[in-house]
Amino acid sequence: MKRLLVSFVAVALVAGCGVRPTGVLDGGAPASGIPEGMRIYFASDQGLRGVSRPDKEITELAAAVKLVMAGPNEAELAAGLTDLTAITGEFFVSAVEGHVTARLPRTPVTGVAGMAAGQLVCTLSRAESLLHGTRPDAVRVTVVAQGGTVGPYQCSQFLTG
To answer: Residues near 18 by Cβ (< 8 Å), separated by ≥ 6?
Structure first.
């Protein structure tokens, strides 16, 4: 009798759980993954934001730094994006097996610290991925500037939410 009562209660709970059948629901567009082409990163009130530069084909890592130095376009400025880097003078960028080093001998380390470092790290990670096939999340970037070194960093250390 006790087993019958327990079985009855279990069946009643499962049958009355409140889940009702529904029709087919639209789940929206499929996931698109990482956008193709070059992306550069600028600062905003919400953290770093990547913007596409599909018309820019890079053939060397230094070209990615030049894209950051060019700053956001008018639409990006209107959306609150800004370039926090303060790169001055010459610079050199090299990569060995996913380890990128940016040498900025005339730029004070304060000009490439914090979110400014994130701009370079994320932009160079994307460029290294495009140029050499390294997964962006595997790239490590070190910035050697006047007065110090920042990194090595991965882009994920600077992205929020």
So the answer is: none
